[in-house]
Amino acid sequence: MTKRQLVLEDGTIFTGDGFGAETKSTGEIVFNTGMTGYQEVITDPSYCGQIVTMTYPLIGNYGINRDDFETVTPFIHGIVVKELSGHPSNFRSDETLHDYLKANDIPGISGIDTRQLTKSIRNHGTMKAMMTDADKPSEELIDMVKNLPDKTDQVKTVSTVKPYVVPGRGRRIVLVDLGMKHSILRELTKRDCHVTVVPYDYGAENILRLKPDGIMLTNGPGNPKHVPEMVAMVKSVLGKIPLFGICLGHQLLALACGADTEKMAFGHRGANHPVKDLEKNKTVMTAQNHSYVVIHDSLSGTDLVITQESLNDHSVEGIRHKTYPAFSVQYHPESSPGPEDTPYLFDEFLQMISESREKENVYA
Ligand SMILES: NC(=O)CC[C@H](N)C(=O)O
Known about the structure:
Blueprint: E1 3-8, E2 13-20, E3 25-32, H1 38-42, E4 50-54, E5 58-59, E6 78-80, E7 83-84, H2 97-103, E8 107-110, H3 114-124, E9 127-132, H4 138-146, H5 155-158, E10 164-166, E11 172-176, H6 182-190, E12 194-198, H7 204-209, E13 214-217, H8 228-237, E14 243-246, H9 248-256, E15 261-277, E16 282-294, E17 304-310, E18 316-321, E19 326-329, H10 344-359
Helix pairs in contact: 8-9
């Protein structure tokens, strides 16, 4: 195994063993507290531009299987683990984590004190970082990391280039791909939807021409303020077509309605985030992966109401438009990885479509 270094913006250097691809990588270092689900994390396009440290100490133990991918081409910039299992044991396992990462040009580093690393991210907030095998003086490596550009406009990198259809006989849904996890598509096809997946810059006019019954906005990487074409699109379709947003899609609905977003110190990433559904007076366990958040106070004076909030820090987890059929959540109702407490939101979206068609007297 090659020695590999993880260099952080604050000047800390961790040395460990390289696995996966033998390539240099840079990005924002974040941590995920899920005990399982590394395959879904690695293939979630929302992690584009990020190096993820898993706080669970043993990673790779059930290998990589053909069923749990969230995208075909992974965009994560690297993975940091305490102990890498070289001998996965699971009936579904097709290959090792090492082989998968190597084939997809993603570097990993093992043998890292991930508790110390996580504490340091919690204290400093997320930081710029680099993984490298280069034998250079520490000062030079730290300077390289400090000078890395802040990149938060990754949606164009991960969104589909052309629209495509996943046919069904049910509701016609336009799914705007901002870095779509396949599980969102799975939840829609499970419900017989006819899904047209479109790029982030497809525009309201083109979307309306498809005569959709509903529009869904997916998860995605980066800062929601760096996707202005999406804010404009949401403004134009609001009130015309029922809308449901997840994660980045949620933040974009908030921006389109005049609310504001900000970056949290180290975000929410894991599979056990408790959220209170204020309308149902019920607590759910959710899967989360986000850095940005809708600012609570920015919602007053808008036409949005808060429907759900985090029980860890009371941040905004769900919003709904007061008059138009539109709602969104900050967490992942499609889970993958994580608890399956909230897929009913997809049913509520379809229910909202039926109700708004009845109201408008359209053939339901
Ligand atoms: N998973 C997501 O959609 C993340 C949304 C956004 N990029 C954030 O970090 O907050």
